[in-house]
Nitrogen assimilation transcriptional activator (Gloeobacter violaceus), 326 residues
Amino acid sequence: MHGVTNGWGSGLDSRQLQYFLALNHCGSFRLAAEQCGVSQPGLSKQIMALEGELGGPLFDRTGRRASLTPLGECFLPYARRAYKELEQSRAAIGELLKPDRGEICIAGLHSVNAYLLPALLAVFRQKHPGTQLRLTSLGSERIIKVLLDRLVDAAILMGPVHSPELVSTPLYEEELVVLLPAHHPLARRPSVRLAEVAILPQVVFRDGYAMRTALVQHFRAIGATVDVAVELNTLEAFKEMVRQEVGVAILPLCAVQHLGTDLVIARLEEPSITRRVELVCRKDNYQVPVVAAFTRLVAEHLPTAFARWVHTGPEPWLREASYLAG
């Protein structure tokens, strides 16, 4: 971080700013060179280069003490401010590059944030206690936008992702199932055809959610349209709407575990439907230490978390998360 762009020329060297300020403070090329840990000729050369960049002499060298010229007096406050900002930026970047310091903003799918990520975030916090975490739940299409806009550092979303600015890691394939009231005629069967579900009123995600887009595409593929009963964006609201018989809902399997006796799920067939969940970062920041530490943890353990949650419930996964933390 040596270059500083400016209005006088192509750029100033941060060493030149340091040497200029030291010479102004010491009034002696010899003392300034000692303070900066360089040779006196080296310091003199950089001061002359700075004067050439700015277009005139900064120091009067005729007396026993090097003193500022009018040009040097004019430049002094700008040099102090620029050098201070450089030092502050170095300190900030140094903090960012520490794997156990900084802030990481994460955007995730509602079901992932609600059921799978909390235990992993607890593990991450224990390993990196100086890191502040920010977590937000959004639909996949919105997640991609905030990721590209640099509002979040990493994301877990519904793939596939098509952007040259992003790098994606597949985590797992998740089955989509139908959520039904327990006394619904289709609830007596373990699986139903998509065409049977498509004729019913649907509780759906709002526009802008990849689940909504996928539902429309799957219905269109069998010659059906989505009869929207209500649009929502929270999982608990989905369950309550289905419970109240407003409609049925096609949801990720992870989102409909451990239901009460008044709700049931049925598998879809002809066709079955899945979604791919992916971990996504921008190419320009996925190697930042705090982001890299988070993505490694997620890539290694979230697929296992999903499999255990779906097949055996949350308790075994929570025990494993506790083991990881230890």
Notes: The CA atoms of residues 37 and 193 lie 78 Å apart.
